[in-house]
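hey can u check if this looks right to u? its 349 residues, i copy pasted from the old doc so theres a chance i mangled smth
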Amino acid sequence: MTNSPITPLDNRKQVILKAIVTDYVRTAEPIGSRALMTHYRLGVKSATIRNEMAELAELGYLHQPHTSAGRIPSDRGYRFYVDRLMGAAGLAKTEAESARHKLTPRRAEMDLILEHACKILSDMAHHASVATHPSFEDARISHISVAHIGPGRMLALLVLDSGRVVHEFLDLSSEAGAVNSQVATDFLMRIFEDKTLESASAASLEAEESASLAELFAKVHDFIARESSRAGETDVTTEGAGYMVQQPEFRDTKRLEAVLSVLEQRSALYKLFSSTYLGPGVSVIIGSENPVEQMRDCSFVGSRYNISGRPAGTIGILGPTRMDYRRAVSAVGFMARNLGDLLTSLSVS
């Protein structure tokens, strides 16, 4: 998780801060000392709780939105809670099994798998979800083949170990187009199998190869080079934007429009996602820590997912800073692991 410098708190202040975060996440209403006295056995008088809350506010862990209102957590308060107080959480066994069952794809298209994964995650966490499609900069060619589809015309199929499958139609001379497709496939596999797109695009042909295979090699080489040039590009899938509308923080139309507009901006989401590649596990970006200015009222909980042990993309949820972080971290971690397992199984099947 993301760490930032925080002021140490004594045990009583930690207990009070945790109680305020817990109640505010549940009610979306500022929390006063009387409510804490009613709901928690703190072992001190209301005046003591008020003093502790005032000190927490002075230290920057709480805000007082109105003069006569209770207190709400600040970004620093949420950060302390996430890093020190919330503890580990898991999903109920029945919920986890249900989510795994829903994730099982009826079709293996990457777009549909990620849309499905994001929808499941949104419904689990009750927040908007986002995911990047797998990056294939470091992916290796697991299979390449060609097949005749007409006179002088072949279909080239390229399969990467990230699960990505791409194809291209090749127009060839009558001599090159007449080559046996199995001979051509064996020839291409010998040259390109297990190479990255970058190294494959730099491959060269032995001088003794026949002219027909040389022409085929040149066409396939150009195809691979074009895919290599696009290797850094990726798409973003979003689901569950309707959950944003349900949050009291976004009853202000301008605030809601600002957040929803970012969900439609791929460059802004890339900037947000880049923060989750700093390390393994689930990352939590809270409010003002957010690199996207329009998202400063939001928190992002994200994790990278791996395909065959290599980082491939990111999946996470976006919601108000008043979110249930224990639930969010559990749901995102669960979905990242299971999505990675699914895509790994598809890439080797």
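Residues 179 and 334 are 49 Å apart (CA to CA).
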